[in-house]
Amino acid sequence: MVVVPLLTHHLLFILCLCLIQLQSIISSKSIIPPPPSLRFDKNGKFKILQVADMHYGDGISTPCEDVLPDQFNGCSDLNTTHFLNRWMKAENPDFIVFTGDNIFGFDATDAAKSLNAAFASGIPWAVLGNHDQESTLSREGVMKHIVTMQHTLSQLNPSSPDTIDGFGNHNLEVGGVDGSSLQNKSILNLYFLDSGDYSTVRSIQGYGWIKTSQQFWFKQKSLELQRAYMNKPEAQKAPAPGLAYFHIPLPEYASFDASNFTGVKQEGISSASVNSGFFTTMVESGDVKAVFVGHDHVNDFCGELTGIHLCYAGGFGYHAYGKAVWDRRARVVLATLEKTEKGGWGDVKSIRTWKRLDDEHLTSIDAQVLWTKKSSLVKLVQEVPEIMHFLSAHCNMKQQSPLHCLFLGMQENGGAC
Which domain holds residue 238? Predict the structure, then answer.
């Protein structure tokens, strides 16, 4: 029998305590989320460009579709690239979202090469459409290639043990201004989902949809982000606003007519033939303020339903169907922060949108307010009947809600009331 001296027992005991404490420190640090890879700029703004349906083929050899006869000669994928470069220079965005059908698979003889060309400018991000996999790569192969590209923030799928349908489902967090009290908080949340291509259920025809597994992931992630935002440090009173991006429109897009949206509806809503309930899931989660899709190239409207704006971008690419007398276009989203009492930057105050046309002047059209934080001014307007009555009478002539009209008026006057 080996007798261990008492001093050795004490040393072993202390060593064990140290190891336990070290393990505790490592574990606690491992659950601290990394700082956001995106953040608001020093002016309290964050700008997103949405590109829908580039339909990129093989470059200069791929002809344009639906352009005027005098524009056809010499028109190719390079026109799409030129529009993207002009648009980026004019808007100077913080982030670009490519919402699917980035390449037109049947006409892209080398999918990887076409993807590289399509995303050659700026900061690529992509959500799969229903044509991306029709070339030399599978849907999974397309996304695996995208996540290796320079500047991309795309992810193949969430890093969780649960199986999830599709590829490219993930979220990105946008942090507060560097040096502000919210610099390590995600004050704007971006959700990206794969809406599929075509139905995989034999008895259901038509396009794909966002599946139950994806909705489960979304609900869990939304709840996780809301808890982090409303807990210490710098606990906030309400969830941070969220924006969702995918390719195929939800059936709820058919809820609008010309009286309750901004923009145009020139074709039917090509959603899945079944309703998977994702709109209801977003309403229940409570943080998503707007959804952005593509797929239907000559629709570019944006309307509000149950507190969520449902928006199209309008067709972007020249090797895609459109209208010869209707300019290609794309959508801009601008989130702006609120100034704190001490003069710093706080949380998100408003989210606005507009579109730019690929015309001579890159004309901006259809400015809208998608969401505003209910400030003390808005509360005052709501609580004083005389003000609301005046705004209603004045703004109804413009077919705008009173608060929308008030906000646009303030913007025109530099923020003054």
Answer: 45-372
Amino acid letter, residue 110 = D
In a domain, residue 204? The reply is: yes
Burial-class residue 140 by CB neighbours within 10 Å (0-12, 13-18, 19+). Answer: middle
289 vs 30: CA distance, rounded Å: 31
Looking at 28-32, 97-101, 272-276, which range is the least confident one? Answer: 28-32
Q: Which two tokens stand for residue 296?
A: 């239907």
Looking at residue 222, which CATH number applies to its domain? Answer: 3.60.21.10
DSSP string, 160-205: SSS--SSS--EEEEEE--TTSTTTTSEEEEEEE----SB--STT--
As for how many domains the chain has, the answer is 1
Residue-wise pLDDT tens digits, 131-182: 555 556 787 887 888 788 877 888 888 887 678 999 989 999 999 999 999 9
Q: Is residue 102 part of a domain?
A: yes
Angle in degrees, CA 152, 155, 160, rounded to 5: 160
pTM of the full predicted structure? Answer: 0.81
In a domain, residue 408? The reply is no
CA–CA distance, 371 with 347 (Å, rounded to integer):
13
Banded model confidence at residue 409, pLDDT cuts 50, 70, 90: low
**Hey, what's the torsion of the CAs at 355, 356, 357, 363, to 10 degrees?**
120
